User: Which sequence fits this backbone?
């Protein structure tokens, strides 16, 4: 009887410790296992290449460059051999639309992005790499929903919300890595990414390199491969209008 009571007390203590962790604890663990806070704090620029494949004509590649110092971002989307370039710098935002066929001498028509489109790109500048980067400064609120099972694995579910967007983030309880990111936009569109593999950049930060991507907008599953170079030497021309 005494052993049973001791076992129950030990179990109760272990459960209380499990639930004592906060959303911040879960987020901190992710930063630690992916390289550590000092490495993340040292990031000033990044270059990201992504390939979205589903066997459809709408498959595309993305070439993204970001600079935190001047809040600049360039996103080149190549689809059907035509490249569309989205950019923000300072208070400006633009879209370069290719004219004619996709040859080496492509001419572009430049249009202004709407205020909402610019706002989305400024949000993406950091959140594409790390959804909760400086989340408190942006007015986001992080809540630990609790422990759940996702694809047969125990995960910690953290909800991050603010400024018209909501992230549901699912972190592996064992490794601390992010297994799923679900983003709900103000428009109602829901984008879900399940992370399959991680890679380590030359800089030392670990990031999701293989994933599946689904959106309620087009309802198909897309395979995504990603490579990132942190603190890349990016030419100023990359952010030229």
Assistant:
């Amino acid at each position: 009887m005494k052993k049973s009571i001791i076992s129950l007390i030990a179990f109760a203590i272990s459960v209380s410790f499990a639930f004592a962790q906060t959303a911040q604890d879960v987020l901190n663990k992710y930063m630690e296992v992916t390289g550590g806070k000092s490495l993340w704090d040292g990031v000033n620029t990044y270059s990201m290449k992504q390939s979205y494949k589903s066997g459809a004509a709408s498959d595309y590649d993305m070439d993204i460059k970001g600079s935190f110092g001047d809040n600049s971002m360039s996103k080149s989307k190549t689809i059907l051999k035509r490249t569309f370039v989205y950019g923000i710098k300072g208070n400006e935002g633009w879209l370069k639309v290719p004219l004619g066929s996709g040859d080496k001498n492509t001419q572009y028509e430049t249009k202004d992005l709407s205020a909402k489109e610019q706002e989305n790109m400024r949000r993406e500048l950091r959140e594409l790499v790390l959804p909760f980067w400086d989340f408190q400064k942006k007015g986001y609120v992080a809540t630990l929903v609790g422990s759940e099972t996702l694809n047969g694995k125990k995960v910690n579910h953290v909800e991050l919300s603010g400024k018209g967007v909501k992230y549901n983030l699912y972190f592996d309880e064992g490794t601390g890595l992010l297994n799923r990111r679900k983003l709900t936009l103000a428009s109602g569109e829901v984008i879900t990414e399940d992370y399959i593999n991680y890679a380590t950049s030359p800089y030392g930060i670990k990031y999701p390199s293989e994933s599946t991507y689904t959106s309620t907008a087009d309802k198909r599953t897309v395979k995504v491969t990603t490579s990132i170079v942190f603190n890349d030497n990016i030419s100023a021309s990359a952010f030229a209008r």
User: Anything to note?
Assistant: The radius of gyration is 21 Å.
